[in-house]
Amino acid sequence: MRSICSFFLIGFILSTGLILGENQKSQDKVYQIPRVKADIHIDGQLEEAVWHKEALNIVMNIEVMPAENVPAPVEGECFLMYDENNLYVGFRAYDPNPDQIRAYLSDRDEMWGDDLVAILLDTFNDENRAFAFFVNPLGVQGDQIFSKGGSQEDTSWDAIWSSAGNITDFGYEVEMAIPFRAMQFQPSREEQIWGFAPIRNYPRSRRHQISSFPIDRDQMNCLLCQLPKIKGFAGAEPGRNMELNPTVTGMRSDQKDDFPAGSLQKHKSRGDIGISGKWGFTNNLTLSAAVNPDFSQVEADVAQLEINKQFALYYPEKRPFFLEGQDFFETPFRAL
Questions:
Q1: Could you tell me the mean pLDDT of each successive run of 10 residues in the chain, 336 residues long?
Q2: Closest CA to 199 of 300, 82, 121, 282
Q3: What is the largest CA-CA distance in the chain?
Q4: Rounded to an integer, what distance in angstroms lies between the CA atom of residue 121 and that of residue 199?
Q5: CB under 8 A, 24+ apart: contacts of 221-224
Q6: Which of 59, 186, 200, 239 is the most buried (most CB within 10 A)?
Q7: For 300, which DSSP code?
């Protein structure tokens, strides 16, 4: 399922291209995002007046996959604004049959078969690396890093951000609050320009990919360079926090000396401690270090049965020290 989803997501990025004019490239279109002062409650309902009076509103009405640049079977709206600490993203996804909306409560990064909305952000505007934040109609999160121009995705990256969704009689609404400290970018007192794209997945008899922009499928050699731009974020500061992740693990084994009649006898016990950390010196330089990092995961491992298995169990790597920036070390064969 993830590989199928990856195909569709990468296909969507490939398809995000020209806008507002037969010959005008999407990267030539720059939207102005407003800075607001408002108390926004992330509850999946776009009830605050600031969403409708001040936020940038972008209509999503073009199907880009699998059909090519045709009117979408459903429409949606994306709302964007920011304050000192957060980027706020709102979606209103219209649906003539809300009872057919696919939405399930699931683990993080495991809702790819659902209805989805997302925002893609090329924060350095280098058209090489971008952050993507996905939410289903029940508020379940997914996040990724797209690298190598958008041709490679990494779902192991997890940021700390807020989201909520709400199914309504007209479709569903989603709210996101993405802290600037959850992303990397070059701070500036002046306004800066990011690449961005709103995304909607509408899975029915087929999976429709919907956005605001028609496509340019002739530019398949570069994906993120096809994104339109957004201007703003003056004074925004990325996170330079120090992160420390201590771990404490213990193990004890009991054994029957006389099997099967004997009782369990306590055998060796062992404890282990470790720590990993990250310190952002600047926006372009981060020190990461680990001492005896724990081989369990940041999140709880999904239970697996090892009865009658002919192979070792596998758990995906989730330790931040081994995940961040791993795309820079990718090789044709597994070297690291």
A1: 43 39 56 93 94 95 88 96 95 96 92 95 91 96 82 78 96 96 87 94 94 76 81 86 78 74 75 80 74 64 73 72 69 69
A2: 121
A3: 83
A4: 11
A5: 221/149, 222/127, 222/149, 222/150, 223/10, 223/13, 223/14, 223/16, 223/146, 223/149, 223/150, 223/151, 224/13, 224/122, 224/127, 224/128, 224/129, 224/130, 224/146, 224/149, 224/150, 224/195
A6: 200
A7: P
